[in-house]
Amino acid sequence: METINLANLYGTPNLEWARVDAHLARGLTQAPGTGGPDRHTCWLATINDDGSPHVTGVGAMWVEGAFWFETGEHSRKGRNIARDPRCTLSVAADELDVVVEGTARRVTDRATVAAMAERWAAEGWPAHVDDTGMALTAEYSAPSAGRPPWFVYRIEASSAVALLTVEPGGATRWRF
User: Fold this and answer.
1) Tell me: the pLDDT tens digits for 32-64?
2) How many domains does the chain have?
3) How far, in Å, are 79, 94, 99, 100, 141 from residue 20 at the CA level?
């Protein structure tokens, strides 16, 4: 892993990736008052077919060192990822802001899909695996997810940037 201090100008030290990973692993709820600037919203950027960016909020989770999200294959983000899997996911957490760039891969392992459904259900979204075993369904989802079934995606990170918003501050980029 390559580490680049983006705040050398201010004399701040590099952030440690382990600190960022541990912070994200604690969870990012979307409930008001749980993070900065008052709650956490994960923003996924994909690439439209004309090359322009498409940004939308997603209910992402940080699990085992990666961001995971779900969407329908006919949603704009689902279509964009099917055509070009490069994407960026960003979140403002309570002590740091994080941007992860990488490639979104649809998860087809039934055990992994089931495990992620259990994680989302434990966080309050009543997701469960559909009859195929490779997608999720629920009574509801975010309107931007499209209609069920919803497929699970894992972002394989190629780089990340974190900005520490508390003392001593700092900004670091990692290339994986």
Assistant:
1) 565 555 557 899 999 999 999 999 999 899 999
2) 1
3) 30, 12, 11, 11, 28
The two three-digit tokens of residue 141, written as one number? 């989802």
Specify the CATH number for the domain of residue 96.
2.30.110.10
Query: Domain range spanning residue 94?
Result: 2-175
Contact present, 137 and 148 (Cβ < 8 Å): yes
Instruction: Count Cβ atoms below 10 Å from residue 26 Cβ, excluding itself.
Output: 10
pTM: predicted TM-score of the whole model, two decimal places: 0.91
CB 140 within 8 A of CB 120: no
**pLDDT tens track for 121-147:** 988 889 999 999 999 999 888 767 778
CA dist., res. 136 & res. 144, Å (int): 15
Side-chain half-sphere exposure of 174, counting CA atoms within 13 A: 19
